[in-house]
Specification:
Radius of gyration: 25 Å
Strand order of the largest sheet: 1-2-3-4-5-6
Strand content: 15-25%
Helix content: 55-70%
Shape: elongated
Number of strands: 6
Length: 353
């Protein structure tokens, strides 16, 4: 039985890794095509390739559920096409036992994905985004179409670029009064963190009074704020690129400032429930191979896997934004498709048993 488990697991894991490589290759080709229009200044084609390479961990992490679904269909389908599953069943191995054989390598995939999402995706993504901002020249002047916006109380801030180690470039700040009237606007070329405060350098301040407007310049000035470098770094990254351990704390910070945190809660539940997502898709793959697709060709299995994966991803893409618009919990936006897949998979397996 142990040899059967190892053999089945090896076949399924090999198919999953092969599908993942194919998905990544297609993803990279699409990223190159999309990125050609962003080339400017020192951000040339080699830098585009370096940026894509640095974001490969994120692309692999996001592709894992899809790769598991199609890979499990291909791996188990290969065993079925060679009549090896029939031999296993004739030897008294139950469907649940065979599903367990396929689930063991998927546990390794889930563990590897968790480590990837927590410890490699965030720093690699931060480095890639900061380098791209710097090379494209977005730190030199205010750019409302790019960079990062943040709010603290009655003050709104914009950073053109964020660098590791508590360094900012292109810091614009706008302070409003209780009647939402702009009272002060400033722009600093850069800012650095000095333990418990920030220091802005080479800036201009414009103060808007009731009767007059005054403008002053400065070489450096102290900036006291509760916005620590760790929080600034979090604003640089899209929510799906942040580790789980920081998503909850940053979402709580946004809520304490009266800002919307729905995107971060949605990303949090997407990451927390990713193992359930992968297992639900694995169950669908196993139930399809032993059920409707038992005697299908390999091409039809791939087509079916792609179709199921697209429908599943579309449901997540629809329910996620819907939870932000209509106000229901992001948890249910992620959990509902998972529960549907688990239910359908169990029903198909029961019929095939």
């Amino acid at each position: 039985m142990r040899q059967l488990s190892r053999y089945t697991g090896r076949v399924v894991l090999g198919a999953i890794l092969l599908v993942l490589l194919v998905i990544l290759a297609l993803n990279v080709i699409g990223a190159i095509a999309d990125g050609l229009g962003d080339l400017r200044n020192d951000y040339d084609f080699p830098e585009l390739l370096l940026y894509i390479a640095a974001t490969l961990p994120k692309r692999a992490y996001e592709s894992l559920p899809f790769a598991v679904l199609i890979g499990a269909m291909l791996g188990l389908g290969t065993l079925a096409g060679n009549s090896e599953l029939v031999v296993m069943r004739a030897a008294g191995v139950s469907l649940l036992r065979i599903a367990g054989f396929a689930a063991r390598p998927v546990l390794l995939v889930i563990l590897g994905g968790a480590l990837l999402g927590e410890y490699l995706v965030p720093p690699a993504g931060q480095w890639a985004e900061s380098r791209r901002m710097a090379l494209r020249g977005e730190q030199e002047s205010f750019s409302a179409r790019s960079g990062i916006w943040n709010r603290e109380g009655d003050e709104y801030m914009h950073f053109n670029a964020v660098y590791p180690g508590g360094k900012l470039s292109g810091v614009a700040r706008y302070r409003f009064d209780g009647q939402r009237r702009l009272r002060e606007a400033s722009f600093a070329a850069r800012a650095r963190f000095e333990g418990d405060h920030w220091v802005e350098e080479e800036g201009v301040i414009t103060r808007l009074g009731d009767d007059a407007i005054t403008t002053d310049s400065f070489q450096s000035r102290r900036w006291d704020t509760g916005l620590a470098p760790e929080l600034v770094t979090l604003t640089l990254m899209p929510p799906e690129s942040l580790p789980v351990r920081e998503l909850r704390s940053y979402a709580a910070y946004l809520e304490s400032e009266g800002l919307r945190a729905g995107d971060y809660w949605l990303a949090f539940w997407n990451k927390v429930l990713q193992p359930a997502v992968i297992f639900s898709l694995l169950l669908i793959a196993v139930s399809f191979v032993f059920g409707p697709l038992r005697e299908s060709t390999t091409g039809f299995r791939v087509f079916s896997g792609v179709l199921v994966g697209v429908v599943f991803q579309m449901s997540l893409n629809l329910l996620g934004p819907s939870s932000l618009v209509f106000g229901f919990s992001p948890f249910w936006a992620v959990a509902t498709p998972v529960l549907i897949c688990l239910t359908v998979g169990l029903l198909l397996l029961r019929r095939a048993a």
